[in-house]
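ok so i was messing around last nite and threw this chain in just to see what happens. nothing serious, just curious
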Amino acid sequence: MERCLIRHQLNSLSWCPPRCPVPRPVMTLRPSLLSLQLLLLLLSGAVCRAEAEVETESPVRTLQVETLVEPPEPCAEPAAYGDTLHIHYTGSLVDGRIIDTSLTRDPLVIELGQKQVIPGLEQSLLDMCVGEKRRAIIPSHLAYGKRGFPPSIPADAVLQFDVELIALIRANYWQKLVKGILPLVGMAMVPALLGLIGYHLYKKANRPKVSKKKLKEEKRNKSKKK
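result:
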């Protein structure tokens, strides 16, 4: 009887009600799995940063030219390098902010090929006709690049130019010939001059040296003759 009572008491002590929470085993990550997850997180962060940098860079990579108004007559003399152009223009950022315009003053006079304006604008004027209007979307590397033009033009800015060709003065044959030949002549003269200077220095270095005694003797002989 006493054994049964003790057994019953032991059973009652080990009894747990149904609502008693049963502790679950804690899941632990292996060191290799943890390092792999950290590596994936770092890689995903690097990819996101790279995508963000690409998005912040200029979205326009090439020059885009659109004709807004066709020339009134068939174009017999499209603009070419060496020609002098009179243009009206309005330059703006892609958000619409105007950075410069010639509409409030006389037309801008430029000569194609002389790098008087940004490369993208000059390229957009090629083959243009009098009376024609164009819109040029210029990427930053053909405009002001990473430096920009503070405070009006930020770094890596894409620019938009609306241009109208007012007048065109065609360069004649001799003007084009002179402008094309003079730089070549100048480039050819540089090695020729360097060659002459080198020859002069060579002759001077190989000239026989006269001793001081001999010079004194020559002076004495000259003085005696006098």
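not much to say yet. The mean pLDDT is 78.
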